[in-house]
Amino acid sequence: IKAKGYERMMLPLVKLLTTYSLKILLGISSMNQVPFLLFREIALLQMIGFTAQEIKEGICNRGKGKSVPMHKNTLADMLDRLSEEELSYVLNGAASLLVKKGFLGGETFILDATDLPTTEKCQGRGKKKTLKEKWDRRAKKTVEVEEIVYGFKVIVIQELRSKIIVAAQVVKIQEHESKYTLSLLAQAQRNLGSRKIALLLIDNAFMDGVTLWEIKHNLKIDFITRVRTNMDVATDARSFRDQPPSPWVKKAEREKDGLAVVGIAGLTTYGQYGEEEHKKKRYQKDFQANPINCVMVTCWKGKEYP
C-alpha cells in the first residue's frame, strides 16, 4: 500500500550533522527548543549551508511553511541512527575545527553533562531509574515516584566565555560522569593543540578525589568544584566562618553584588583527595590527608547562608 501525500527525500547528511553540532554548541538541551532557539537564527543557518529558500520553505514537506529548514523530529530521527562513537566523532571534529579557526580566547573551561532522553525503542540507548516529584491528589502532598528514563548522556568540556565545546563524549544515560573525566580532558587537549586549559570548573557530579588529584598534580590544571553540604570538608570549612583573618583564612566582600566569601587554605578533611593508594589508607590511624583549598560563600545576592 502506497501512502498518499508522502515523498521520500534524500537530505544532505552534512547539514543534519552541522545543525546538531550547533544545537550542542549553543547549549540547547531539548529538541523541542530547536525551532525557537536555533531555527530562528537565520545568519547561523546560512553559515552552515542552508539557503534562504530552504530556511523559508523547508528542505522537505515535513514542517513545510513554518519558516524552518526542517522539522525538529527529522533531526531527532537522524540522531537515532547514529552510534555513540559516531556522535562523539562529529562533536569532536566540529570542536577541533572551531579551535583551528581561532574562535576560542580564554583558558577557563567547564566540565558538564546533559541527559539526552530517547524512546525505549532507540537502538543502543541506556536506561536509569530516577525519582520525580508529583502531586498526590488523594494525599494532598508532593510525593516521589520512581520513573525509568531511556537515552544517552553527552559529557562536554566547553570554553567559559564563548560556550564553545572543545570535547564531547556520548555514553549511555546511566553511566557515571566521573568515569570519563580524564579521557575527555585528553580529547580536549588534543582538540586544543597548543592551547592550554588553565582552570576547569567542574560540576559536582564528577567529584572523585583520585581524579581531582590527577587533574591538579599530574595534568597541572587548577579546578573548582562544589562540595556537597554533608561532606566532612564542608563541615570543616563552616567552622572557620567566624574566625578572624589569618595567613590561612581570608575574607572578602563585594557590597554592590551582595557577595561575601571566606577562603580557607589547607583543609585536611577530604580523605579521598590523592592517588589511589593514598585513598585506600584513609581509615588507618596514622592517615594524613592531603591539603586542599576551599572558598565558602557566606552571602549571595544579599542572602546570608549559615
Describe the protein.
With 306 residues, the chain is an alpha+beta fold. It folds into 3 domains: 10-81, no CATH class; 105-220, no CATH class; 227-304, no CATH class. Helix content is 29%, strand content 27%. It contains 10 helices and 10 strands. It has helices at residues 13-25, 34-37, 42-47, 52-57, 72-80, 84-100, 181-192, 209-218, 232-238, 276-280; strands at 108-117, 126-136, 141-159, 165-172, 199-202, 222-225, 249-254, 259-267, 292-300, 303-304. Strand 7 and strand 8 form a beta hairpin. Helix 6 (84-100) packs parallel to helix 7. The chain starts with 12 loop residues before the first helix and ends with a strand.
What is the count of DSSP helices, taking H or I runs of 4+ residues? 10
- Mean pLDDT over the residues: 85
Report the major sheet: 6 strands, mixed
Shape by Cα distribution: globular
Structural class: alpha+beta
Helix content: 25-40%
Output the helix-strand order.
HHHHHHEEEEHEHEHEEHEE
Rg over C-alpha atoms, rounded to the nearest angstrom = 24 Å
- Report low-confidence residues grouped into runs of 5 or more: 1-6
- How big a fraction of the residues is strand? 25-35%
In the residues, how many domains can be counted?
A: 3
Rounded to the nearest angstrom, the distance between the terminal CA atoms is 69 Å
Pfam family, one: DDE_Tnp_1
InterPro entries: Transposase_11 (IPR002559)
Organism: Candidatus Hakubella thermalkaliphila
Protein name: Transposase IS4-like domain-containing protein
